[in-house]
Amino acid sequence: MPRVFVGLELPASIKAQIALAQGGVSNARWQRPDQLHLTLRFIGEVEDRMLFDIRSALAQLRFHPVFIALSGLGSFHKGGRPKALWAGITPEDQLKALHNKIDYAITACGLPEEGRRFKPHVAIARFPSRGRIDTLEHVIVSQGGLTSPTFEIGHITLFRSVRTPNGSDYSVIDRFHGSGGFVDSPSNAYDEGPLWNEYQTADHWVDEEMTGAGDPWFDVASLPRYA
Questions:
Q1: The pTM is what?
Q2: Are 123 and 86 in contact (CB under 8 A)?
Q3: How many CB atoms lie within 10 A of CB 166?
Q4: Average of per-residue pLDDT across 221-227
Q5: In what order do the strands lie in the sheet with 66-78?
Q6: Distance (Å, rounded) from C-alpha 87 to C-alpha 171?
Q7: What angle do CA 37, 40, 46 make, to 5 degrees?
Q8: Cα gap 33→16, rounded to integer Å
């Protein structure tokens, strides 16, 4: 089963700026440029039919572009040990509103709520559960002034995540316009077999055979919208 999440891809210029803040912490696993992203909604492992439903739901979302910037460094801890070093994002309100829309759409597919407070960030390093981790606080203080010009992102991305010995590898399954629909044609990055063929040939995003005629499973009009 694919392990998936919804997030934002970062411009190359922003990734380059983040790279300047990476370094100086022992035992850190610094994230490669292809690993840098902003997670909006982690989903986890899903069956083919659920992936079908998630794609359909995300293709129906409507949202305005977000205008955001890098803002400082921070860290997450677990059991008293650093777990990740992250770059903050400002303003947070736009991303929190977008997160809420995506969360609503995902739960409408039948998945549980994420169950944790959403903190917009870009993970730039991860740490092992054992071994010394020196100078982390020094780096947070010395690089705490990390900022960037404001940048615009007008689409969201459904990623596939594969765990490897060198950290997770991420690939794009699909991208979705804020005005609705796919940025590109639905990808073949993941082969869903007959179900995906049904999706490609359907006249509507949601097949009546799946939902029951006259009983749509997802009401776009009920989603919260930006003012």
A1: 0.79
A2: yes
A3: 9
A4: 37
A5: 29-30, 121-126, 81-90, 66-78, 151-153
A6: 22
A7: 100
A8: 8
